[in-house]
Amino acid sequence: MAARKAEEHLLAFYGLQAKDHFMQLPKLGVKIRVSEIGSGKPILVVPGNTGDAFPLIPLLAEMKGYHILAINRPGGGLSEGMDHRKVDFHEEANETIHTVLEAFSLEQIPIIGHSIGGHWSLWYAMDHPERVSALILLGVPGNILTTCPPFSLRLMTVPILNSLLFKSIEAHSSKAALKGLSLVGHSAENLARLPKELAECYSAFEKLPHYRISTLSMMQKINHLYGADPRVHINGGQLQNIQCPAMFLWGTNDPFGSIETGREIASLMPESEFHAIEGGGHLPWLDDPAGCGRLVMDFLSNH
Fold first, then answer.
1. Where are the alpha helices (DSSP H) in the chain?
2. Dihedral (CA of 211, 217, 223, 226) sign
3. How far apart are CA 282 and CA 174, in angstroms?
4. Quick check: 70 and 37 in contact, CB under 8 A?
5. Crossing angle for the helix pair 2-13 and 196-206, nearest 10 degrees?
6. Domain range for 257
7. Model confidence at 191, in pLDDT bands (50, 70, 90)?
8. Residue 238: phi, psi to the nearest 5?
9. Residues 167-177: pLDDT tens digits?
10. Cβ pair 224, 134 in contact under 8 A
């Protein structure tokens, strides 16, 4: 399969190897893939976007000494596809994370979450505080206070138009596959520095047969044309109930939410720290993998 081969090449570029685990989510009836990387202290990774874990590989390469369990969320990363409109998104988040922790017999663990994966991680920390020792939230977590995707992405919620937009994505060559990241705050200069193996992953995974329904249904579930869907919104009062230490890594060019909003969100949580990644987009580690890696490792060593 082209997607699996592309991911193997990306892992090899960064000197990593991954072991696959497939497990069934009992209530949803969907099979997900968990990528196991490295050895040492366990840490859970919940990716953003459609759910593929591969974009996080440049950051994971900086995390020597950790036993990384990277969830490929339902619909992404060779997990089975699904129509997110047919399920309760909050329950989907909790069942996915809980199933993985149970499968690996993990009583308590730090979680790294990106974008909507950060949203999932916050929900799980609220509902199961005894299972989460720390949170690292990369990029703007979706739908918190006033944060939401930029208008260009919210167009993906409009029927017919979203299919036309997705066709243009599917037509991307591997060379052009990274250009879409410019819509979420990444400069052409920084994108040009990324390895071709990452571009090949984006191109290959976007062509998987279930990718369209999984992507578009998730966007329609959590957003509408004019902003975030209130049914998946996290408010300030909920943030104040987060009991574990948390760290935010927030790109200064991330269009999902301003730095001022990020600092406000962090200030509402009892024990949190906030770092603005200068020139960073929605995936800030792609702009500065070493710098983000140091911040993550320092935070984990302190918590």
1. 2-13, 57-60, 89-103, 116-127, 151-154, 161-170, 188-192, 196-206, 211-222, 236-239, 259-268, 284-287, 289-302
2. positive
3. 20
4. yes
5. 160
6. 2-302
7. very high
8. -70, -40
9. 655 555 555 67
10. no
Kindly tell me if the per-residue pLDDT of 166 is higher than 80: no
CATH number at residue 160: 3.40.50.1820
Q: Residue 207: what residue type?
A: K
Give dist(CA 240, CA 268) in Å, integer: 5
- Rounded to 5°, angle at Cα 80 from 49 and 212: 50
Residue type at 147? Answer: T
Place of tokens 């869907």: 229
The number of domains in the chain is 1
CB 249, CB 242: distance < 8 Å: no
Q: What is the spatial distance between Cα 229 and Cα 302, in angstroms, rounded to a whole number?
A: 36
State if pTM tops 0.85: yes
Report how far residue 209's alpha carbon sits from residue 289's, in angstroms, rounded to the nearest whole number.
31
The two structure tokens encoding residue 211 = 């990718």
Tokens for 171? 């037509």
Residues 246, 249, 253, 254, CA torsion sign: negative
Checking phi first, is residue 115 left (phi over 0); if not, alpha (psi -120 to 50) or beta? Answer: left
